[in-house]
Design brief:
The protein has eight helices and nine strands. With about 280 residues, it is α+β, with helices and mostly antiparallel strands. The chain folds into two domains: about 80 residues; about 180 residues, 2-Layer Sandwich (Endonuclease, Chain A). The strands form two sheets. Strands 1-9-6-5-2-3-4 form a seven-stranded mixed sheet, with helices on both faces. Strands 7-8 form a two-stranded antiparallel sheet. About 5% of the residues have low confidence.
Length: about 280
């Protein structure tokens, strides 16, 4: 059933793309034809020819041609706008997190299928992710979203050697803010919010929308020998991208996210890897 639905979705998208291409490629010729018709109507004697053809009201014809011209101009302006606006293609690289967040919100707003109103967040401390998501989730038209957030536990001891000193406390502060939102705007908009705390050293982080779109990044080492989170790049993979590279990126996100949500932060700080087996990952 899922494969059939996916096939129908791709078919609809293909039809839309073809119509879009037709409008983009054909509207120039329509505009030229309309302009030529308007010029002809200004030539003396053409009105009489129009009457002989059975078109008694040349004014109505002029209005119709003008409307066609106006529509062509609007299509041209639309195409110009698209040409100067970076498109979110099947594969995109964002060197700046701010650019990524704009793209993430745009893709999330475009989701109309209720089953796809979900976002999974594999965070570090959520210090930048949560404010962006909060503003998105409290918009009047945004309702019934499921949000699953994984973040570093304040009680985790294993990562402390590798992450900045303030990260665990920063994560705890963000968790408190999320709980406050959940009780207020979250409840008003019928959002379902789940928070998971993990106790290992974070490396992979990013976002996965319910339609399959993924924004993925990894941490970089700082000169002081600790992991850093500032100005890191993101890579975007569209749900429609079924290449091996795209599947690998989605699998990488799933692997780390699944471990984060099934990790018992308290147990992970004291577990003995030689005697205590790790928890099983979800299928």
């Amino acid at each position: 059933m899922k494969d059939d639905a996916k096939g129908r979705s791709r078919g609809v998208q293909l039809a839309i793309d073809r119509i879009d291409r037709f409008l983009e490629e054909g509207h120039v010729w329509v505009a030229l034809a309309g302009a030529g018709a308007l010029l002809l109507l200004q030539i003396p004697g053409v009105d009489g020819l129009i009457e002989k053809l059975g078109l008694e009201n040349s004014l109505q014809l002029r209005i119709a041609v003008a409307v066609i011209l106006l529509a062509s101009i609007l299509l041209e302006l639309r195409q110009l706008r698209r040409s100067v606006t970076p498109a979110i293609s099947a594969r995109q690289h964002y060197p700046d997190p701010d650019e990524m967040y704009d793209a993430l919100k745009g893709k999330a707003r475009a989701i109309t299928d209720p089953e796809h109103r979900e976002i999974k967040v594999l965070g570090l401390t959520l210090y930048s992710a949560w404010p962006v998501l909060e503003f998105f989730l409290e918009r009047p038209e945004i309702t019934d979203w499921t949000v699953k957030l994984a973040t570093l536990s304040k009680d985790a001891t294993a990562p402390r050697e590798w992450v900045p000193v303030g990260w665990p406390q920063e994560s705890d502060t963000t968790i408190r803010q999320i709980h406050e939102f959940e009780k207020g705007h979250g409840a008003e908009h019928n959002h379902k919010i789940e928070i998971f705390e993990y106790g290992f050293t974070p490396v992979v982080h990013g976002f996965r929308l319910g339609n399959g779109d993924v924004f993925l990044s990894t941490l970089r080492w700082r000169p002081d020998g600790r992991l850093g989170k500032h100005r890191f790049p993101y890579d975007y993979v569209s749900a429609q991208d079924d290449s091996a590279a795209a599947d690998a990126m989605r699998a990488l996100f799933k692997s780390w996210f699944d471990r984060a949500i099934c990790s018992d932060a308290g147990a992970s700080t004291t577990a003995n890897p030689d005697t205590d087996p790790p928890k099983e990952l979800p299928e």
